[in-house]
């Protein structure tokens, strides 16, 4: 089926001053759209056309012949997930089961934030930093380029895009400032809590 870009749940200027409307207009309006357009063009007329994006990602992840479909499909998925990981007036700390589990698995919320910052700033080149559930443990992981945790059996809870296009217009080379700003101000812990709930019942 044709993959449709999800509607952005906030205005393009709603994340200012942390992420500018200009960045979102390119990132959501151009980069993400391009991945989706490429993906839809590549699967058109193939057996993948009738499958969900998640199924296609799983089936193409380790097939070198299908790297174009995988890269564009996984980037389509990663970005749709990332938009929901951000929210105006976000940040703070998760309460409830996710908050308790973070304290249990990382020692404290501050230690978790430190691990996420290190993963996001040390990912060499383009990629993503993630909070995932693997088995019954929360972990911070990083993935390169289009790679996505579901292909390693991990359930994504939260992500930060660390491709340069995510921050260069606003922060230039200062990826650590972008990462720290996102974590402190606009992470959507309600979305993360929903993902954690789904991941633990599934
Ligand atoms: Mn991106």
Structural summary, described in words:
By secondary structure, this protein is mainly alpha-helical. It folds into 2 domains: 64 residues, Helix Hairpins (Orthogonal Bundle); 106 residues, 3-Layer(bab) Sandwich (minor pseudopilin epsh fold), CATH 3.55.40. Strands 2-1-3 form a 3-stranded antiparallel sheet. The longest helix has 23 residues. 37% of the residues are buried. Manganese (III) ion binds next to helix 1.
What share of residues is helical?
40-55%
List the secondary-structure elements in sequence, H or E.
HHHHHEEEHHH
Distance, first to last CA: 25 Å
Number of strands: 3
**What's the alpha carbon Rg, rounded to whole Å?**
16 Å
Supply the CATH class of the largest domain: Alpha Beta
């Amino acid at each position: 089926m044709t993959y449709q870009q999800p509607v952005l749940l906030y205005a393009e200027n709603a994340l200012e001053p942390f992420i500018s409307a200009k960045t979102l207009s390119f990132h959501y309006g151009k980069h993400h759209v391009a991945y989706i357009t490429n993906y839809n063009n590549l699967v058109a007329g193939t057996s993948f056309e009738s499958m969900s994006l998640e199924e296609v990602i799983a089936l193409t992840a380790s097939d070198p012949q299908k790297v174009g479909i995988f890269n564009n499909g996984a980037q389509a998925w990663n970005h749709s997930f990332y938009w929901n990981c951000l929210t105006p007036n976000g940040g703070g700390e998760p309460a409830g089961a996710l908050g308790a589990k973070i304290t249990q698995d990382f020692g404290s919320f501050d230690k978790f934030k430190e691990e996420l910052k290190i993963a996001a700033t040390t990912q060499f080149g383009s990629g993503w930093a993630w909070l995932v559930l693997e088995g019954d443990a929360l972990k911070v992981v990083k993935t390169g380029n289009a790679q996505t945790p579901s292909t390693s059996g991990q359930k994504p809870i939260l992500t930060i895009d660390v491709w340069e296009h995510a921050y260069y217009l606003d922060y230039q080379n200062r990826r650590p400032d972008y990462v720290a700003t996102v974590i402190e101000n606009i992470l959507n812990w309600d979305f993360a809590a929903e993902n954690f709930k789904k991941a633990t019942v599934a």
